């Protein structure tokens, strides 16, 4: 379905899979200010420390020379500096389908879906707590559009018992998709089983497994300055397995972070550096990404806000900090809107442009996110795909050959004439322009006759058609056969309870 | 109303009136390609010419050495080059309220409202042909928000006879607003009466009148390569009156322009250069702006598309061409959507960012435009104001003083604590963040209890309240008294018929 609608240019499909940033990264702080923010974050870690709940993680820091006091760890700047020399600048995101593989590197642009939503919503069935069915459907949506580059935990399948949930989510990602995968860091047992399933299901050799990153996880610190057990285990476990951790403090200015952009970024940066350092202590050279997802709260209600000027400024500042330390980094778009309306589109579009100008390597929550992540919207997803495809097209420069200049056509068409029938137009007619997915360009009369549907209403038919036409990739059946005995055994054993 | 909602930062209102571009302008073409596009436009004018219907305009070109043949004028590149040396790089946009005045100059950022719409639409009264009431209401909306910097002909008052329409529109702009004004170029008689009304109504001295630009007009060529009588009269009349013409070809790639971005831009550039040159031949040094409003058509229906990748690329290319010739320039946002939905917000937000990155001096159609300009949407206007205010906030860099770094607060709040009650937060609480106009940040339960209103539905109450609270500026009553006899006399004489 998605492929059918991929616009063509001179008969060739536009590549929505391999995107490189087209814009110069933009700044909100001077280089001196960025250096000072970085220094302030180092000072915070050194003098005031991080609370790290996991003894194993504290031991790694202590072995590197960090001072400890109870569960507080004071991380000297030399330890951070060392970690930043071993953290890789890029890695290969692997997939069963080599056409889906990407380099995760500064300057590359990857989009991930809205993730971590406890609820799902669409215009047909309304808003409901997420189920496995919702997860499978939204996974199929992710898989169906080339402009979504990595899988994400779109909807939480709450009808699957927590200890069994990773088996359901991994089975689906392995068998029903072929993009780089996401694994939740909910304790060592779940992580180990999830990574094992990838190797088992895809039949990977040791060499295959070691040759790149098959799965990533997102590590959220508990701002301010705290790292809990599952997150610390996740960092260590992913590092030792050679898989990618994306360290993403979620710093809400005015609540869990200072009320200023600069203050919130210092906290974000300190927490991210602590996480990055832990990964390098667990295994030097382990793939680890800088992450920033800082915004502000609504000072009236305390609710998180997205798409605000403060959010955009923090995106740009985060990009500067990531470039300062030289690592690839993850940003996010976002919306606080409760429904797929103009607010939702505006907030998401603003933050997509913010991520473009901040030159984020990975933009998560790029499609389908509503209610600040409490709900995954099917119609919102389809409309967001339109925005992502538009930005993907911006990664291709317009042609600048003599042929593109159309000098013959310009000479041929007289004043007041038109270019519809020129040879230049006729030769390029098919696929000359982006072909909209959900945007309706018809005039008001035609639109009214077609039922006067808003873009959210039109999107319903598109996700329904996408799901109806969905075909899992060819490797899925064999992978399912390989996984079945393992899943049965682990299920019989009660699964793997998440770590608190 | 608008002022009540202006967010405060450290107790001081954020200035939404005086905006300077915060971003580095972005390119889609190499500098060499831009030089080649410029050269191709010069070649087109020189070898293939423009059809210029107005004999007076042809005479001005002939006097400058241009070759003529019938109503075709072949404009040598030396004539263009001369015009570009006399065209001013900036000018002062004047207003009765000095606090509203702006420099129209490269690097400055001005927003204008959706303009030229034959219809008006809102959720209460539906879509209807525009009336004087709609024009007056939408003028009040323009006047009420600081982030709209110049007035525009939002809705066409079709219930006022065409020969009398300029008197109604100028009376309203002069008496019910205090921002730089718009005058339609619909023939010499209308233009002269409109400009006379400004001087008369505001009681301007010769010095006042000559000290800057009180009114602007938009000149649309008839692409390809044709300039009609009212437009040519407008260029000449505005130039001789020292008022500003904004030369804006409307080049739709695939219809009235070549199907390629480069080809359409060559045509746009040639037509803009011809108009700029005519203004300088009429009066060297006359204020004249480069303009670009090129997009593509939907190749299925031939309908204009907005917010597409091709539209965005043409915005960026237009900015490069404007910088190549060193003139300030006008871009536009736009939407083809038939209603105030996600498509509308997405297309408009994309093109606002496009204009920001193309460093447009003036962005017209920035609020309220629907149906590719066939309808002015009240709820769309309110939602667009939110986008404009967000972009206006981006013109202010975040603070980078030690005080902004919040080091004491960062040291004071323990791991797992919060910053709500720190002295740093309390001192900045009021006005720390942008305060949304129409975005609803409440959670799903609160939102549902409040009626589950979409942002377009919430916007209704906001425009209603804005209109209910609207107060014309203080000078309005006296201006109305000054204008009344003139309007009565011109009305008695039948007004000024528009020139075809």
How would you classify the quaternary structure? homodimer
Mean pLDDT score of chain A: 95
Radius of gyration of chain A: 24 Å
Low-confidence stretches of chain A: 1-12
How many distinct domains of chain A? Answer: 2
Structural class of chain A: alpha/beta
Explain how this protein is built:
The structure is a homodimer of 500-residue chains. Chain A is an alpha/beta fold. Chain A folds into two domains: 8-27 and 85-394, Alpha-Beta Barrel (TIM Barrel), CATH 3.20.20; 402-431, no CATH class. An eight-stranded mixed sheet of chain A has the order 3-9-20-19-17-15-13-12. In chain A, strands 5-6-4-14 form a four-stranded mixed sheet. In chain A, α2 packs across α10 (261-282). At the A-B interface, α2, α10, α11, α12 and α13 of A face α2, α10, α11, α12 and α13 of B.
What topology emerges from the helices and strands here?
The structure is a homodimer of 500-residue chains.
Chain A: H1 2-5, E1 8-9, E2 12-13, E3 19-20, H2 31-47, E4 50-52, H3 55-63, E5 67-69, E6 72-74, H4 77-86, E7 91-93, E8 102-104, E9 108-111, E10 119-122, E11 126-129, H5 132-144, H6 165-176, E12 181-182, H7 188-202, H8 206-210, E13 215-219, E14 226-227, H9 229-240, E15 244-247, E16 252-253, H10 261-282, E17 288-291, E18 295-296, H11 309-325, E19 329-332, H12 342-357, E20 362-364, E21 369-370, E22 375-377, H13 378-394, H14 402-405, H15 407-412, H16 423-428, H17 444-449, H18 455-468, H19 476-492
Parallel strand pairs in A: 4-14, 9-20, 10-22, 12-13, 13-15, 15-17, 16-18, 17-19, 19-20
Antiparallel strand pairs in A: 1-2, 3-9, 4-6, 5-6, 7-8, 10-11, 21-22
Helix pairs in contact in A: 2-10, 2-11, 4-10, 5-6, 6-7, 6-19, 7-19, 9-10, 10-11, 11-12, 12-13, 13-18
